Amino acid sequence: MEQLLDVSRYLDAITGTDSGDSSSAEESLRGAARRNEEFLREVFSSPSLGALLAPALPPCTADIKPLLLEEPAPHTRTRLSVRPSGKTLAELAGALEEANAALERLRAE
What we know:
This is HAUS augmin like complex subunit 7. InterPro entries: Haus7-like. The protein has one domain. It has 109 residues and is mostly helical. It has 5 helices and no strands. The chain has helices at residues 2-15, 25-45, 49-53, 65-69, 86-108. It is elongated.
């Protein structure tokens, strides 16, 4: 979830537009260059940069891992006692859709 939020924040920073009252294109370009430098400095100094470049997601969440380690009885199915709430799934789905839409807009440019 944190990685998705970081990607979303980075996409917002990339696609952000200049809302200042620049009187010339040169000033606007200088402002954009300064913002890009600040953004790149933030990205490369981020403690989560390694996780963004090479995510190492666990094969299962912490609440499921104990269930997988238990030896089930023969011919029985293990039922998960804890399921993600619909709200959490909806939030994650919404964040994923927003990130996907931002990526599509960038691809179109």
